[in-house]
Amino acid sequence: MNMMKAAIFETKGDPQAVLQVKEVALPEPGEGEVRIKVSTCNINPSDVMFIHGLYGIRPQLPAVAGFEAAGAVDKCGAGVELPQGMRVTFTAIGVWQEYVIVPAKLVIPVPDGVSDEVACQAFVNPFTAYGMLGVAGLTEGQYLMLTAGGSAFSKFVIQLAAAQGIKVISVVRRDDQKEELLGLGATAVINTSKEDLGKTVRTLTEKQGVDYVFEAVGGETGERALECLKQGGTMLVYGLLSLQSTPVNNGLMLFKDLTIKGFWLSTWMSNLSKEELIKVTKTVFGSLATQNLQADTEKAYSLDEVKEAVAHHERPGRKGKVILDLR
């Protein structure tokens, strides 16, 4: 029997305690499926939450970790005609392994100008950034606040929003992030470890507040961000990095006519037509290929080093993505 390596967890919990790299059987593609030889995998907060059992999708144990990867077509199932070796990116449940079976209709070809290191992070964050900006419908001159303002996702939002003339306020906790974020197009960067968020936002917006908040932290950060919205403003929630729910001031919601709603990439994409999905894909990959949209990688680890990779991902002070390199 042919075997391969996979990063598996048999119980939910801290990745350092539960992740194991094991030999498992090499899977065979069925009808309409393709087997991908994985080259690189992105590590996202959702991957860590999945291992903890705290994500919207719950693991069916034992489970393989990881949702986003790039690779090359290795073998096609019945009814599939894709060139062997064609470079692709994809999302699936359990991609931190040497080979993955994916429905052929879900793989996205990678342009020649996009490296595997970029391709493996070209789906979740860029597509989410594109989708959330579309939902927000902000126009030139309006204000958008980003909590977790130094994250890889927020960097994509800054670049896309700045190109549309949207004024972006990034909320961070370290001064060393300011220069890079301003260079990407942020209008202002607020370090909440030194500056009062509400007071600074009121000054920046001439006491009006921001039109929209993209919120991923929860807890006190979410509460303070909600207070920064202008009359009729909206908070779009896409994460919970603090694992603490956001306290909601009912009076604030009522008297300022505020809206809070959620965004999940899978739900947004399921509502797109085939034509709309093709348009989004061409826009995102076209921008990555021409360097109009930048994706940073800080360090790559082997699959055998998956625990070290996740630990690095969770350390404060990162300036780029941590990835797994299976080549």
SSE layout and pairing:
Elements: E1 3-9, H1 15-18, E2 19-25, E3 33-42, H2 45-52, E4 63-64, E5 68-76, E6 87-91, E7 99-103, E8 108-109, H3 116-119, H4 124-136, E9 143-146, H5 152-163, E10 167-172, H6 178-184, E11 188-191, H7 197-204, E12 210-215, H8 219-227, E13 229-237, H9 250-256, E14 259-262, H10 265-270, H11 274-289, E15 297-301, H12 306-314, E16 321-325
Helix pairs in contact: 4-5
Low-confidence stretches: none
Number of helices: 12
What best-fitting shape do the alpha-carbon axes yield? globular
Rg, rounded, reads 20 Å
Give an overview of the whole structure.
The structure is a single chain. With 327 residues, the chain is of the alpha/beta class. Helix content is 31%, strand content 28%. It has helices at residues 15-18, 45-52, 116-119, 124-136, 152-163, 178-184, 197-204, 219-227, 250-256, 265-270, 274-289, 306-314, and strands at residues 3-9, 19-25, 33-42, 63-64, 68-76, 87-91, 99-103, 108-109, 143-146, 167-172, 188-191, 210-215, 229-237, 259-262, 297-301, 321-325. The strands form 3 sheets. Strands 3, 5, 6, 7, 8, 15 and 16 form a 7-stranded mixed sheet that branches. It has a 6-stranded parallel sheet with strand order 11-10-9-12-13-14, sandwiched between helices. The chain has a 3-stranded antiparallel sheet with strand order 2-1-4. α4 crosses α5 (152-163).
